[in-house]
Structure formats: C-alpha cells, structure tokens
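TL;DR need structure tokens for one chain.
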Amino acid sequence: MDCLTSLPQQDVQGYKWVRWRLWLCRLAAVLSLGVLLIVFHWRPRLAVLARCCSCPLALADILLIRPLPTCFVPFSLEMVVELEENEWRDTIQLHKEEKTLLRYYLFKGLRYIWLGRKGAFCLIHDVNSFRRCMYGPNLIDVQVKSYVKLLFEEVLNPFYVFQVFSITLWIVDNYYYYAICIFIISILSIGISLYEIRKQSVTLRNMARLVTNVTIRRNSGVEELVSSEELAPGDCLIIPQEGLLLPCDAALLAGECLVNESMLTGESVPVLKTPLLAGEGRYSSETEHRHTLFCGTQLIQAKGGGPGGSGAVAVVTSTGFFTAKGNLVSSILYPHPTDFRFYQDSAKFLLILGFVAFVGTIYKSDITDLFWVCVQVTWLELVVMSLDVVTIAVPPALSAAITTGTIYAQHRLKSQGVFCISPPRINICGKVSLFCFDKTGTLTEDGMDVWGVMEGGPAGFSELVPDPRLLSPGPMLSGLACCHTVTLLQGEPLGDPLELKMVESTGWTLHEPEGDGNVLDAEFGGHRVLAVLRPPKQQPQAQESTSEAVAIVQRFPFSSALQRMSVVTVARGGCSALAFMKGSPEMVASLCRAETVPGQFSSKLHSFSSEGLRVLALAYKPVDGNADLRTIERCLSFHRGEVEKDMQFLGLMIMKNLVKPESAQVINMLRLAHLRTVMVTGDNILTAVNVAKSCGMVGFDDKVIFVNATPHTAQSIPTLRFSLEDRGEVITQVGPSGFDYHLAINGKSFAALCDHFPEYLPKVLLRATVFARMAPDQKTQLVKELQKLNYKVGMCGDGANDCGALRAADVGVSLSEAEASVASPFTSKTENISCVPLLIREGRCSLVTSFSLFRYMASYSLIQLCAVLTLYSVRTRLSDKQFLLCDFFLVTTLAIVMGRGGPSDKLDPSRPSASLMSLPVLGSLFIHTSVIVLGQLAALFITTSQDWYVPINSTRIGADNLPNMEDTSVFALSGFQYIIMAVVVTKGYPHKKPLYYNCESSEMYKDDDLGLEGFLNPLKILYCSPWPFTTV
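>> reply
TL;DR here they are.
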C-alpha cells in the first residue's frame, strides 16, 4: 500500500444507531405531524445527533463529514472473492464459504475505503489485481433523480413549506382569490423547477458520461478491445494514431500525443505531450502535466509509440471522479460556498424582518384583545389573524430577489462574448479592488517577431545578427531550428507561437516520420526519430559551408517551474549526438559551465530586457564524444537533470513582443477608477517593468525599486535589499520620499521573502506592481496572500499557466475561444483585456440592482405590514383583490422594471457597498418606515376628519366591514408608496444608468436569443425560486 490519501480537509466522525433514540424520534415525528422529519431533512447533523451516539469509525453505521456541507453517508458493502492485502478487508464466513467485505463509502463521487490498520477511510491510489473492485467502474455518473424524488425534495424546501403554511393561512382567513393565485403559481413554479433541474441533470450527465471502446494490453502482451467502463488504474492503454476522446487520466509511456486541452485550461493552442521519463520519484499529474493525458481532452493525433511508429502507449492513472474531468463535474455538482458579505447579510436581514413580524404579531394580538372583546371571535380566528402578519412581514420573494440583477448581467455579458459558469461571482466583480494580469498573450501580443540573434562564448558576444538565416552553420543555428516542440498536423506546423516564429526565422523545414518510420530511422542510425529538421536547399551565399539535417530523438518539454526545455538530436548515420537547451537566460546560464558564459552576459541581458525585448538563451553539449546507438539510448534513459547540466553557452535570441493597443487604454481606465493593477509573469523582471511602463501600470516618471531577497545557505544568512532601477544603489528605508515608487520582485526573491521575511511580505505586497519569473504555484500563492490583505482580487490570463491563480482569485477571467472551461469562472472570447472593465461595470450594476431590489422588497413588506396593522386598529383590513392587485400587478412589475437598467458607460472611482447590515441601510430603512407609518396615519386621520366621512360599522370586523373609507384611503396611499419607494431605492449614478433606461427592453435582448424565456426569468425568480442559485 504505497499511495493512499486520507480525507482531505475533512473532519470525519463515526456514529451508530441507538435503538431507544430511534423509536423516540419516530414517536416525536408522529406527534408533531411530521414537522420533526422536515427539520431533520433541513438539518441532517441534528438528525444524526438525535438518533445516534458517537463511536469509533470502525464500528460506525453513519459518518458525519465536516467542515464541508454536513451530510451523512451510509456504508456500502461489496462481496469480493479474495484480496491480496489484508489491510483493507474484513473476512467472514457465509454458508461455510469465506467471503470478504470491502467497506467503503462514496462522497462527491470519490470512493473512500476503510483501512483497519490505519483506522481511517482513505483514497487508494495503488495498483493491484483487484483494483476494479476497489475503484468501481470508470464512469463519471451524475445521478438523474426521478420526478417523484425531485418533487419530494422540492416541496420540503423551506420556501415551499412556508408557502404551504401561508396558503393554508390565507384560505382559513378567507383570502380565496389570493391563495388560489399563489397556489397556481407555486404549482407552475414547481413544475418548471423540476423540469429545469432534471433537464440540467440530464445535460450534465450526457456531458460527463463518456463510454467508448478502447484497446488495452494485458500482462501477457495480448491486446484486447474493452469498454472504457472497465478501465482501472494500472491498465496499459493503446492510443490509436488518429487519437480519441480520452475516457480517463493516463501517463504517456511511449510516443507523442497532440492534445486539445481547451476544456481544462482554456488554451486554444494544442499541446504536445511527451513520454514520462524513468525515475525514482513518485508520479504526480500536477508536476508531470506535460506527460499526462487528461480525461475529457481530445487527442488529435498520436505517433511514435506503437508498432510501425504509429499510435502511443499510456498507463491509466485515474478513473471516474478521480480524473481531471471528474474534478470539473464535481466542482459543478458541489460548488464551493461564496464568501461574500452581501449574501451573508441577506440571511441576517431575514431574521430582522422575522423579529419585526414577531412584534407585529404581538401588537395585532393586543389590538384584538382591546377592540374586539365585544365581538364574538373564536380562538382559531385570533391565531389566524395574528399569524397573518408573519406572511406579510417576511415576503417569500425577498431572498430570491437578489438574483434578478445577476441574471440580467449574465445575459448582457453573454451577448458580448463573456461566459460565466458561476453567477454569484458577478456580484463579487463589483467589489474587486485589485486586478492581476499575465503578460504574454494577455497584455502583449501572442505572436513575436525575431529581433535578432547574438552568439556568445568565453570571448564575449558577437555582433547582433538580425536574421538567423545569416548565421554560419553550427550549433547555434541547429539549436534554433530544432529546440522546440513544434509538430505537424495534416502537413501544417502547430505549436507555441514563439517556437513557430523561431523555426520560421531559420528557414528550416520540419518533417515527421510517415508510416512505420523505418526510412527516417535508418537514415539516422536506427534511432527512433520524432522529427527531422532540414536546412533550406538554397543556402545564403555568405556561408562557406552548408548545414546538415538533424533528427530529434528525445524531447524534454518546456516547464514553467523549470523555465526551460531541451531536446536530444543526432545527425545522419546516428553520429554527433547533441543536447540543446532553450529557456530563460538566468536559468540557462546557471546550468552552463561558468567558463562558457560571456562576461558581458548580465549587462547585455539588462540592456535588452530594459527595452522590453523578450530574451531567450540557448546552450548545448555533446552527449558523448564517441556516440553510438547504445550510448544514445543510455542517455535517453537518464533523468532530465543529467542531460541539462554542464552545458555550453551558445547565445541569445531576442524577440520583440508588442503590447496590445487595448492594454494601455484599459489599464488607464482602471487607474482612473482607483483600481490597482499588478503584472504577474514568468518573463524577465526588466522586460516586465518595461511592459508595465508601456501599458501604464508604472508611470514613466515613477521610480521602480527592486526587491532582492536571498534564502539561507550554508555560506550566508538570508538577506533583504531594496535597490533603485537606474542606479542600482541600495535603499535602506522605503517610505514617503517625495516621489511615486513601485516595487518589483522576481520569483526567487518572492519565495525567500515568504520563507525568511514574512513580516515584510504585506508591506511589499501593498506597493509591488511587477512580479516576474513567477512559477504557476507562486502565482496562486500571490493571489491568496493579496486576499489576506482584504483585497478582492481579480486575475486575467490566457488559461495555460495561470489556471491555479484563476481559480484562487475572487474573479478569474480566461481569455479563450472556448465558451466555458474549468480554468476560471469567466471566459472571454475577446483576445484582449477590454473584457475586464466590462466585467467590473456589470458586476457593480448587478450588485447595485440586487441591493436596490432587496431593499425594495423589504420596504414593500413593511409598507403592507403598516397598512394591515393600521387597518386592523380600526376593525377592518385589506380585501383579497387589493392584495392581489398590489402583489401581482404593481410590485412585481416594478421589481422587474427596476432590474433592467444596464451599467454606466464609465467606471467610477467609488465601489458600491455590499453590506446590508450597515448603519446607512438600516437607518434609511427605519426613516422610510417611519415616514410610511406617518403618511398612512395622516391619510387615515384626514379622511376621518372630513364632513363627508361615513364611520365604520363598529359591530363588524375584518372583511365584513368592506368597503369603507378607511380602507380606501390607506390602500390608495400605500399604492403610491410602493411606486415612490421603487424610485427612491433604485440607485442609478454612478454605477448604473438612470431609471428611465430600464424600460428599453429591446436594447438588452437585441443580441441575445432569449425570447419570452428571458423576460419571464425574473418573474419566475420572484415567485418560484427557493433561494439564489439553487440549480445544478
């Protein structure tokens, strides 16, 4: 049992049934007419504590898992003939035949198996002969519940329980028309909700479920065609040359695969996957992602691994919900709770209204005792009249109203090419205070132009050669031509834009093996050839000698963490085996022999980087002076580090990367809106600073201070220094000094700062604008550290190396051609950052709209509550049809119209509030309520003081006194109060267009194919949705 994982971030407690508690709960459920069962349905943890007692996990019948949303999971038992490992089995005798019980439970699709010796439930990742039994079928099975079960769960939702209670109360209180209308709408809403939930479940199941026939190789060497459901970790998978849609995660063992991973990363450029190297370390899909094929990705082609050079061979590493696609589906089924103050305060606000309802109930009871003592009223009528206040003070649509603005914003974003898979994040966009941007492909253009090449050696650097074709034949030219992962798809080169430009600049052509590849293999000494680079037939006249074709026999793909890639090549006949390396100049120089690096290396790199040029370094070394087939093969089995050490420095390749024209405009817009912008890149720090100045993140007159931190070593202690960009002088104190300054730090210094100087980290983060040479995990760490400083952090990247940071950020935006990907909550089809201010404006508009609608629904309930209590004071009430008119026609129309206004055209420096429990909100609501009460009382007193006033019949109560002048005056005024409050709470400037824009419906839907459904969605939410974002 080598690889096993305990429950990640879960507190697991075991419980077993207690018979007397179980029967006591059943008796209490009968006596409470099922109310106790409903409470247990809402609070599963309470149900477990009431019916069970704590016990060791080994004896448990029920598991309580925390801190994730509480749920209890019953055990599953499967019969297994035998197991090689006694560690996870319980052997029993059944009919004198020994059987083994495999004890496990499923949680979020993952199977946790009981290990008795460890005393815990663990995720198993080892490979054994019974792995299929342990892992189960290779299916990402999304449960599609029956309509009966969905109906049962929907009706037991607190919202619908409250609706049933309210409808019953209204019928008893003779509000027949109103109760019937609510009942009909509730039935329709339940039907629509069930249909949509089931439809979404079916859609998700069809998307998640992937069953196909695959070829696997048995231990005997026999290949067998099986269903992908039968795959288990450890199976040897044969990938055909034409590729396939992969049904599992697998590590590539032989051959190369061209993979489209846009679903996972948002990266539109296919990625070349290379075989996993032999090593003693433990395999991890995160660190070995360039050798891992992920479930759900499309394998475009495979080559070099099967018989005749076609296809590839991989080993299955994960199946079902353990795969990358399973993780995507799990994130959709079980989304992380959104920690946003607005959503938290909305629940607290409901408690305040509940307290108001309690006070109103007491007041109404006192009125009944004081004024209706002479009238024969039953206790049932007294209770009904008192509880009626609760259904008025706590409107069912209050909690759901906050989603109306979000739905409108989501539709507008979709019409402009921005797709959202997490609607609650839209409101969070309105509170973003800092936005991080990747550099290459985000702020700058994807494509680069080769600006020149400069060879280097012990004697120094040569003159800059603007065209690599003019280089003399030698290692430098060969390295530029072959040190890449460019591949051919249907005869067209495909790969990273930088590498495509590099190969194109040399004029060399790429060829790949055809058929069984024996022709090329024989040409290059019998080696397994991955690709051949041939020089142009017509060499420049300046060259005295000609270049020869080289064959790539091994690739070590680029890694952001390693900041380099390398290849091993051979010449014709299999001789002259060379290893070439390409990467960041600092990394390449550190892996070269010191005597081969020019003395002017640092100054040249500083000069080019300061001009904003992208600089790459190249190096090489002979694999062996007497290279033969065995030597080469032995080299290829080495660890990557053995190949990439003691290199000889070749020179620098300088590329020009232009800033996108939209970048400076957007950064300036964000700066004027007092939104802080930060660059997070894997490029050189000087290049990053130059780009930051070009796009406006750093003013040209602002000073840049470099933060240099070194870790502890055997020869030195950790140090932290601050130096100016131009003069390089060390600054002993950073603070107010009469000029604006920005801090810039690279990945190594950032790591040392976090490890050895954590007390300085917040100070640096508050003023740092450029983070360079950052590895993907460091980008994620940076986002989390900024969030600790109470920033609402946004992240915009191309989705390739930024996936972790995009997921960790409060608002992640991936620039991708895919409609949606797991890389981030938002995906933009535009290839520039112009979507960022659009997203922030929509987020602010949505937040303001949600805020306004929430306040309006609360005000509406208070207006109606005041009207009801005022009329009860004079022995009358609102009629059935008056309630119907107010709730369905007046308030609903106003609420829908209020949410339709679009965002302002400009970003304002201020950000909207997200707190419902603040003094301005509660204070204004108290003042508005006071004015409402005074207005209704004034209307009542003015009416009763008129000469034409006809007094109410004091011998009747409630509906028996209708119509009357008191009711007419208060009802008429309350109608105007609804309209006035809608205008008062609909805040437009500065984040939303004025109120009169709300009626321009055609503007909103002209590019969105929503039709009637788009118009009815807000109406359905106001009366049908139990709680925001409850769909799958």
